[in-house]
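Kindly inspect this one:
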Amino acid sequence: MIQVKNAVICDGTGKEPFSGELLIDGEKLAEVSPIPFGELDAEVLDARGMAVTPGFIDAHRHCDLAALYDPEFGRLELAQGITTAVMGNCGLAPAPCTEEYRDRLYDFLEPCLGTAPKNSFFPLVSEFFRALETRRYPLNLGVLGATGAITAASKGFGNVPFDRKSRHRAEIYVKDAMEAGALGLSCGIMYTPECFSKTEDFVFLAKICGEYGGYLTSHIRGEGNSLTESVKEVLEIGERAGVPVNISHLKVTGLKNHGWGIERAVGVLEEARGRGQDVTADAYPYPGGSTTILSLIPPTVMERAKGEAAAYLGTQEGIHDLAQEIGKEFSSWDNMVSSIGWERIVIGSVVREEDRIYAGLDFTAAAALSGSTETELFCRLVHENSGKIGVILMSMVQADVDRVLSLPYVSLISDALYGGGGMPHPRLYGAFPKFLREYAGEKSALSFAEAVRKMTGMPARRLGLRDRGTLEPGNYADLLVFDPAKFTDRATWQNPRQEAEGLEYVLVNGKPPQERGGKIVKK
């Protein structure tokens, strides 16, 4: 047993912290009390002068391949207090996967998920679960079924409608994921091939997920000009399918949409919540996001590329096509180039060594360095790097980020990508301590208890993890011990590969991380 003494306990429920002690018996919390237990036959952990909180839960992390293939996986996560991470977000996942589309799927995923060995291949989500279960982890892991991978495996990457046969295949894939233990279903409606899917296609998939008690979390169709309509689409999917929904990384992009755009979307969400719909959202504490460069290619160009964007943009026809389309606005797709400008799109990662001089530069600066136009450089990078380019989009304004994170139904995520090369987004290393430092500290925007709830109890409830996220007897003993004045992030835009610092103790299922006692958490 472990007796945690002299603690200031912030239990993850949102209640004010209180002085007390905790008793851990094996993997679980046996007692939590404001009254000292006295002398016990237990190992003593003295938390004098420090806060004790539940371990942080990152419900949106793109660590699917890192968990399998990175021997250091868990180090930078635990440094920022993450004791549970959930993968399979934004519809992006390495499973299910067919042999026919294996290379295309994995090339598409690489800027977000990182690399996988060429023999890596998971025809079903259940097989991905089995691969995870062959390893031991220093933190807990959860999995979402990903509708992007499901759609690609069912009918390919092109603009091909679902038919009876492909719907049947998709149904089998969703059921396999949920029966294997997926916590819910994620979609990435703005990404290929899901951008070609209709609302009723997502309703069909979400209904199957709902039969297993899962929820739907969505990277919506548009986060700029079409933000409100895209939020309404996900709300409609949830209502028609009868499932709880979550809006992934809620934000507004596009310079002309800042301020008023987020208020309009928040109004729609609160109207839905007011009439009883089970809808939540999450967000990260940075005014810039990151994604694959392929998400910047207009759907008209993607359709003409017939799923071979890298090859198409290496042709004169493709270069001319992109030049014609890249400046246009689309009613149901956000054109980041036209809405924020090349100068706010930063090249984060590349594959070819000779192109690494551009990492960390915006496209305008990189084009000047290359002696070409932004469009020409864009096409060349996509073509010569097989589309495996990560970009950072400085598309938001801090006031909107603050507004979203202040909402009582919005939890914290990192949305961390693992394909960032030399210049990853700093959220990979520091999202959670940054949020606590800024919002509960420097900005005084939230109480310490509410900030902790947004990282613990709130995501646990959304994920359906009833025995994690709060410090209550019977729950798993995932907990952190730290001085809030010393726990901080160090990752910056200019120097992102800096681990957080200041955590004194971390326990995962009652064990220190080096004992690798993490679990695969399931529905």
Notes: DSSP finds 19 helices and 19 strands in the chain. The CA atoms of residues 423 and 495 lie 8 Å apart.
